[in-house]
Amino acid sequence: MPLSGLRVWSVIVAGIIMGACSSLSGNSSVSQQETIPLGQVVYLKNCASCHGPNGEGQNPAAPLSKDATGRFLAPPHDSTGHTWHHDDDLLIQIVREGGMGSPSDFYPMPAFGDKLSDEDITAVIAYIQTLWTEEQRTRQRQATEAVSAQK
Ligand code: HEC
Prior knowledge:
The structure is a single chain. This protein is mostly helical. The chain has two domains: 1-30; 32-150, Cytochrome Bc1 Complex, Chain D, domain 2 (Orthogonal Bundle), CATH 1.10.760.10. It has helices spanning 2-28, 35-46, 48-51, 88-97, 118-129, 134-150. The N and C termini lie far apart (46 Å). Mean pLDDT is 85; it is low at 8-28. Bound molecules: heme C (HEC). Heme C binds next to helix 3 and helix 4.
């Protein structure tokens, strides 16, 4: 009897510790709640002209198809797009340094490293994450954790 009481207690303590850890790591992730409104402002000002005001991409009728010149237009960032497949570090790098696609296949994505602060870039990514489904957010977070665990 005292033993099982102890076991129950240790489960509760472990639960409290795990809860504290997950809320700590939540705070340090790109998805910080308070950065999302800033991210939306940054997005509408700098990104919406190409990626669409709702993240629908430059060619919402066929967002992932090449145009007559054989190139991809700005892709969607919403749940129909591919952006959620990239971990946070890669997304930050693309926004800072510009697109990585070959110029013969993609229209250019400008670099924003000189124009946006690190805080703006983190915030705009946090905002884009709100355009995904819960499952996409979970999978992207796992990709981000897997990449940072390799470092
Ligand atoms: C002048 C048009 C233009 C603007 C403005 C623009 N982009 Fe892009 N963006 C593109 C194009 C075109 C691509 C695809 C080219 C590539 O990846 O090389 C792209 C690709 C991306 C990707 C990779 C997407 C993926 O699914 O792989 C991200 C992330 C991105 N843009 C974020 C942003 C953010 C954030 C902003 C605003 C700060 C922004 N872009 C502003 C044109 C633009």
